From TrEMBL:
Species per Swiss-Prot/TrEMBL record: Amycolatopsis arida
InterPro entries: PPA1309-like (IPR047681)
Lineage: Bacteria, Bacillati, Actinomycetota, Actinomycetes, Pseudonocardiales
Bias type Basic and acidic residues, positions: 119-129
Name the record gives this protein: Uncharacterized protein
Chain residue ranges for the region called Disordered: 109-129
């Protein structure tokens, strides 16, 4: 693993957070009810050197550019991510997915989580049907050297509701760990 000075770490964190916001805004432009989307993060300079015709569509000053990948196959997202490996040219990756968020006290109202797929499906359905649920879009971004960022857009429930944006690198620790695993040699 590469170690970075504090100033380098804060610059990398800011850069990764900017990529997370960029991915969320890109996905958000297509609206809600989308399947999970995966992005490779590639150095902008390298991408422009290989494809100069993209110069008018990319920010040449951005260190990384997210590149949308083909649609993910159906199935358990953890299993799908477990089968992904990136070439060295990819410096990081991002995943955008829609989730259901419940208030902390609502967990007691959900069925017991067992180890079977049927139990997991029953738990997901109970969360989706919960009267106090909030739909959200979560974007997690991870770089090879370990820097991560997460952005979550909470969906408004009415025409006048403003959608809230929450940013924190530890919003989705399990997803960050799964994305890091895709970048390991």
């Amino acid at each position: 693993m590469t170690y970075m000075a504090d100033s380098e770490m804060s610059a990398a964190s800011a850069s990764v957070a900017a990529v997370a916001r960029e991915v969320e805004e890109f996905v958000s432009a297509a609206g809600w009810n989308q399947p999970p989307q995966l992005f490779a993060l590639v150095p902008t300079a390298e991408l422009l050197s290989q494809q100069p015709d993209l110069a008018d569509r990319l920010d040449a000053a951005a260190p990384l550019t997210p590149v949308a990948q083909e649609a993910l196959p159906d199935g358990d997202l953890a299993e799908v991510l477990g089968r992904i490996a990136w070439p060295e040219a990819v410096r990081g990756c991002a995943l955008a997915q829609e989730i259901v968020v419940l208030p902390p006290d609502a967990e007691a109202e959900l069925p017991e989580a067992g180890g079977s797929e049927a139990d997991a499906q029953r738990l997901r359905q109970a969360a989706a049907d919960h009267p106090r649920r909030t739909e959200a879009r979560l974007v997690a971004v991870v770089l090879r050297e370990g820097t991560a960022a997460c952005v979550m857009r909470l969906r408004g429930t009415g025409a006048d509701d403003v959608e809230e944006i929450v940013e924190h690198p530890e919003l989705a620790p399990n997803l960050v760990t799964a994305l890091r695993a895709t970048l390991e040699p």
